[in-house]
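Hey, resending since the last one bounced:
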Amino acid sequence: MDDLAATNSTGGGDADDQRGADSGQLPGGRARPKTDKSEATRALILETAMRLFQERGYEKTTMRAIASEAGVSVGNAYYYFSAKEFLIQGFYDRMTHDHAADARRRMAHTRDFSERLQIALLSWLDTAEPYHEFAAQFFRTAADPTSSLSPFSDESHPARATAVELFRDVLTGSELAPKLDAELVELLPDVLWLYLMVVVLYWVFDRTPEAERTREFVRRSTPMTARVINLSRYRVFRPIVRDAKGLIQDFILPTIGKTAVK
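The structure tokens again:
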């Protein structure tokens, strides 16, 4: 087990990094970088941790080993990530940004909602694939509803907000958005993020090569999802849509923390 007293150690640490401690933390025990140098140090620690998790497994990788491989003091490692599990939050943040950038690039050529949704989900699978081997550890941590590392927690708001904004782009950049009720358009990005969470859960337990079964699930379920959403614009379905919006607002969005629509 790592020596927790090392959190007070500054031996070998960068002076700029230590001065940054006064600036506070990001949610989830992550230090807020103040300079390019401190941002580079934080990124190095996270990259090193991800590599060691892949090589040795999450449980066998200690903060001391991560610090040693990254060439920083143990105190510096704890400064940026107050415990090993908070590296998962850093992983969420980085992967979410990588996913959003990749998905936007891929779907730039189409306005078809079904195709854009499928691209966004498959892009997530491609972005996450290198980390599939230790995804189960992430899931065990995130599945605890009291954990600050849960994707539903307030601490996970930055990564979740990035993902919800991507799904807003999926919808508003499509030909379908102008045809839908404006209130539904406002609610759907959060619901589509929940759809992604279902895909993630399936992916965690998928042991087929390159998660092909999850990919097939996405390819088959996205056209059906698009058809259901498309039907909501017809008058005969409006009472059902109103009921669905009520359920979403009253029971689903309150569980998603700060991204919930007021």
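The chain is about 60% helix and 0% strand.

Sorry for the duplicate.
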